TrEMBL record:
Its main location: membrane. It holds the Pfam family YitT_membrane. It is a multi-pass membrane protein. This is Membrane protein. The lineage of its organism: Bacteria, Bacillati, Bacillota, Bacilli, Bacillales. Keywords: Cell membrane, Membrane, Transmembrane, Transmembrane helix. It is found in: Cell membrane. It comes from Brevibacillus parabrevis. One of its GO terms (cellular component) is plasma membrane. InterPro entries: UPF0750_membrane, YitT. The chain crosses the membrane at residues 33-53, 88-109, 130-151.
Length: 198
């Protein structure tokens, strides 16, 4: 679901994104590098650090989720015949992007994993700087989105911001609908993200 949305909606309609996925999309536009490969390269060192900090099961689950995203994005990029040109319906593109990426991320978080290295980085920075995880997420997203101004026109950037806000809300709703200790921890963390994005 995440890979489908990021390729068919975000990339094809020039919507950017925060976090490592945003850096991956930036690498695609600027250097013509695979976003999936870029995200994987950013994820690997953080997986190694988080192995010691968060525990083995968390890392295995996160690695599985990250590799699944990478694999499906590559498949869509190379073989998908679907073209979702929403250039005349950008509000709809923003809503679809926000809902699908938020739902995909929220489902991963609900079951005690993370969607990639940017989640892990936010957890680590929050732990060692004393800043809330919501503040860390916001700072990372703002930095990536500021870089995206280099290639994303103002109008499309505004639609990107709308998609990010919707995504943060959907993540919160999806995670809160789950049960269990891991779910409650992630719901609390990403609930803070939702508040800071508003």
């Amino acid at each position: 679901m995440l890979a489908f949305a990021y390729y068919h909606i975000n990339f094809q309609n020039h919507l950017s994104e925060g976090g490592f996925v945003g850096l991956g999309l930036l690498a695609k536009y600027v250097f013509d590098l695979s976003p999936a490969l870029m995200v994987l390269l950013l994820d690997i060192p953080l997986f190694l650090v988080a192995w010691l900090v968060r525990g083995r099961q968390f890392i295995w689950d996160t690695i599985f989720a990250s590799l699944a995203f990478t694999g499906f994005y590559e498949l869509f990029e190379q073989y998908s015949p679907i073209v979702m040109d929403m250039s005349r319906m950008m509000p709809l593109a923003s809503v679809l992007s926000g809902v699908l990426t938020g739902l995909g991320t929220g489902l991963v978080l609900r079951y005690g994993a993370a969607t990639g290295g940017d989640d892990i980085l936010s957890l680590l920075l929050s732990k060692y700087t004393g800043l809330s995880i919501g503040t860390i997420f916001l700072l990372l997203d703002v930095m990536v989105l500021c870089l995206s101004f280099w290639y994303v026109p103002m109008k499309e950037m505004l639609y990107t911001i709308l998609a990010v806000v919707i995504s943060s809300q959907v993540i919160t709703w999806t995670v809160k609908s789950g049960t269990g200790i891991a779910v409650e921890e992630e719901a609390h963390a990403h609930g803070n993200v939702s508040v800071t994005h508003q």
